[in-house]
Amino acid sequence: MIVVLDTNVIISGILKPYSKAAAILHLVADGTIRLAYDLRLLSEYRDVLSRSKFNFAKENVEAFLNQVEQEGLLTSAKPLKIHLPDPDDEPFLEVALSAGVEAIITANKRHFPKKQYEGVNPVRNSSGALAAQALAQRVKPRPAYRQAGGIILKSNPAAEQQGIISNGVKILSPAEFLEVMKEKI
After folding, report:
1. What is the mean pLDDT of residues 3-31?
2. Rounded Cα–Cα distance for residues 11 and 97 (Å)
3. Do residues 73 and 35 make contact, with C-beta atoms less than 8 angstroms apart?
4. Residues 122-155: pLDDT tens digits?
5. Which residues make beta-bridge pairs with 3?
């Protein structure tokens, strides 16, 4: 599965090692999910992870960025025809739409409001407290450099009511994403 990961999820996952965001980082590390990115996202990851207030080891930051580059999906993103409330979030949506990913995983779903642009409808549902635990028991590591295709969901009225959009991209919180993964494994 290919997704776009907002920087806030990466930071949260590192700072809170037992959080849902950390479970998502584990899924990236073991190859269960791949990250779609472009040079703007990679640059933001580098800039934010290198901030002195986090005090992350430079070699760990570089190791993460190298994995994203080696195993992720480099995308040539097309500009949006709309503007989001936070212009810094536009590259994430541009990459997601251009790469045809299944989801953008973010802790700031409000930055991607449904009424601002066609097709993106934030999913609102609850997540089970045991989602990360279930994933830890069911997820199997995959070898590096594997081929994986994005899962594109077909649009239909019932799916759109559940937050699935016509191009297959969902805006999900870390908890919601883990629920989706639990259903797929």
Report:
1. 93
2. 23
3. yes
4. 332 223 222 333 333 333 333 332 222 322 222 3
5. 35, 103
What is the C-alpha end-to-end distance of the chain, expressed in Å?
11
Residue boundaries of the structural domains of the chain: 2-184
Q: At what angle do helices 7-15 and 174-184 cross, to 10 degrees?
A: 90
**Phi and psi at residue 97, to the nearest 5°:** -70, -40
Rounded to whole angstroms, the Cα distance separating 65 from 45 reads 8
Distance, CA of 101 to CA of 80 (rounded, Å): 16
Contact between 70 and 63 under an 8 Å Cβ cutoff? The reply is: no
Instruction: Give the other-Cβ count within 10 Å of 165's Cβ.
Output: 21
Distance CA 31, CA 111 (A): 28
Three-state helix/strand/coil letters over the chain: CEEEECHHHHHHHHHCCCCHHHHHHHHHHCCCCEEEECHHHHHHHHHHHCCCCCCCCHHHHHHHHHHHHHHCEECCCCCCCCCCCCHHHHHHHHHHHHHCCCEEECCCHHHCCHHHCCCCCCCCCCCCCCHHHHHHHHCCCCCCCCCCCCCCCCCCHHHHHCCCCCCCCEEECHHHHHHHHHHHC
Provide the pLDDT for residue 97: 87
Alpha-carbon distance of 165 to 158, in angstroms, equals: 11
